[in-house]
Amino acid sequence: MQLHEVRVYPSAEPLPREEQLAWKLAALATDPVAVEPEVAEMVANRVIDNASVAIAAVNRPPVAHARAQALAHPRSADQNGACLFGIENSRRFDAEWAAWANGTAVRELDMHDTFLAADYSHPGDNIPPLLAVAQQCGATGEALVRGLVAAYEIQVALVKAICLHKHKKDHIAHLCPAQAAGIGAMLGLPTETVYQAVQQAVHVSFSTRQSRKGEISSWKAYAPAHSGKLAIEAVDRAMRGEASPSPVYEGEDSVLAYMLDGAEANYSVPLPESGEPRRAILETYTKEHSAEYQAQAIIDLAFRMREKVSDWSAVEKITLHTSHHTHYVIGTGSGDPQKFDPHASRETLDHSIMYILAVALQDGAWHHVESYLPERAGRPDTVELWKKIETVEDPSWTERYHTSDPKEKAFGGRVEIQLAGGEILTDEMAVANAHCYGEKPFARREYVHKFGTLTDGLINQDERNRFVGLCERLTELTAKEVTQLNVQLDPNSMTHTQRDTEGIF
C-alpha cells in the first residue's frame, strides 16, 4: 500500500498528470491484477444483496417513478441494452436509464452495503451502472467482476482519506469517480481515457448534504442513481476523445481548493501498489436491518436489552452514548425537530436513531416496511418513549469510529435505560451482528437468506434459483449470461411496467 499525497497546486506550479490523483485512480483501475477467489465471492454476494433490496422496494413510489422514466428509453430488438429490475429480460433499455432506475431501487430501502471512515459510502451503489453497461456492451462476468473490484477499491480509498461531510458535501462525490473508473476497468479502456472520465465524474458530482438534512426526501435514493448516470456519460464522452477539467482535485480553482479544505488542503490517499491484490471490498459490510448504518448495532443491542424491561411506561430516560457522527447526524446533536416527528417521512425516520431505538426496544424486530408505517410511528406509547431518548457524544466511541484498526473500529454505542425508582440498565455493542467482526458475520448463506426473505411473495422459487445460480457462477458467465443477470417479476405484481405520459419523456 502507498500513500498518495494530495494538495492544491497553483496554476504557476504545473502538476504532471502522472502525479495527479485522478491519474493514480485511473492507473489503479487499469492495472491488470488478478482477482482473488475470496474477493470474487464477495462481489457475487453484493450482487445478490443489491437485488434483494431492489426487489423489496420495486413498487415503492420513488423506484416506480425512476423505472417509468427508464421505460421511456427502450432499445430496439436488434440493439444491445440493459435490463430493469423486475421487468422481463427480453426488454432492453439504454444503459444510463437502467442504471438510474436500478440504482434508485437499490438505494431506496437503505439496506445494502456500507463503508465508513473519514467519510461515508455505500459501495454497492457501484453495481447498477456497471451491470447496465456490461449488459449493453457485452462484457463477460469476469470483466464485470474486475470492474466492480476496481470501483470498490477506489471508493474505499477516497472515503478513508477525504472527508466530504465536514464541508456539507454529499458522499456521491466519491462514488461517481469510482463508478467511472470501474466502468473503464470493466471495458478494458486505456488509462488516459479512464483518467479523463474520472475527472469529469469528479467535476460534475459535487452536491450538498441538504439531501440528508431536515425533512429528507426521496432524493436520498435518487442521488447515487444520478451519480451512475453521470459516470456513464463521463466514460462515453472520454471514449470519444474528449478531455475534462484538469487537474480536477489539485487545481487552484478546483474541488480541494473551493469545496473541501481550501488552499492549504492536504490529504493522504491509501492506494495499492501496482500488482498488489485489490481487497477493499472485504473491508465493507452489509446491513441486516433497513436503516442508517450507525443504527445497525443499536438495533441489535435493543433486541438484547428489551428483555430486561417489563413496563415501558416505567422508563424515565434513555441515553445513547455514541460517536460524533451518530450524535450529530442521526441523533439529538443534529438539532433536527423532524427526528422526533411521528408524521416525518420514512427517509427522515430511518435517520432518527431515537425513533429506531424506541421501536426496536418495543418490538424486538425490525421490518423494512412495517417498522416505518405511519400507524407504527404514531403509536402513542412509542411517541412517549421516543421523546425520552437522547444521544451524547462519547470521545471514546468517536475515537473507535475513526480508528484505522478494523478490529477496533466501532459504529455502536452504550445505552443507559433509567427506570422509575433509580435502577439503570446498561449495555453496549460495538458492531452489528452482521458485520465482518460481529457475532454473526454475513457470508453466502446469509446473503441468499436475505434475498429469499426480501423477495418472498414477489418472485417464485424457479426465478430465485435461476438468479442466485447465475450469481454463484459470476466470474464464469458469458456476455450472453450477463444479460440475464436480472430478477424478473410477474408484471401483474408490479406498477409502472409500461411507458406512460405523466412526465416529459
TrEMBL record:
<protein>
    <submittedName>
        <fullName>2-methylcitrate dehydratase</fullName>
        <ecNumber>4.2.1.79</ecNumber>
    </submittedName>
</protein>
<dbReference type="InterPro" id="IPR045337">
    <property type="entry name" value="MmgE_PrpD_C"/>
</dbReference>
<dbReference type="InterPro" id="IPR036148">
    <property type="entry name" value="MmgE/PrpD_sf"/>
</dbReference>
<dbReference type="InterPro" id="IPR045336">
    <property type="entry name" value="MmgE_PrpD_N"/>
</dbReference>
<dbReference type="Pfam" id="PF19305">
    <property type="entry name" value="MmgE_PrpD_C"/>
</dbReference>
<feature type="domain" description="MmgE/PrpD N-terminal">
    <location>
        <begin position="19"/>
        <end position="266"/>
    </location>
</feature>
<keyword id="KW-0456">Lyase</keyword>
<dbReference type="InterPro" id="IPR042183">
    <property type="entry name" value="MmgE/PrpD_sf_1"/>
</dbReference>
<comment type="similarity">
    <text>Belongs to the PrpD family.</text>
</comment>
<dbReference type="InterPro" id="IPR042188">
    <property type="entry name" value="MmgE/PrpD_sf_2"/>
</dbReference>
<dbReference type="InterPro" id="IPR005656">
    <property type="entry name" value="MmgE_PrpD"/>
</dbReference>
<dbReference type="GO" id="GO:0047547">
    <property type="term" value="F:2-methylcitrate dehydratase activity"/>
</dbReference>
<dbReference type="Pfam" id="PF03972">
    <property type="entry name" value="MmgE_PrpD_N"/>
</dbReference>
<feature type="domain" description="MmgE/PrpD C-terminal">
    <location>
        <begin position="289"/>
        <end position="466"/>
    </location>
</feature>
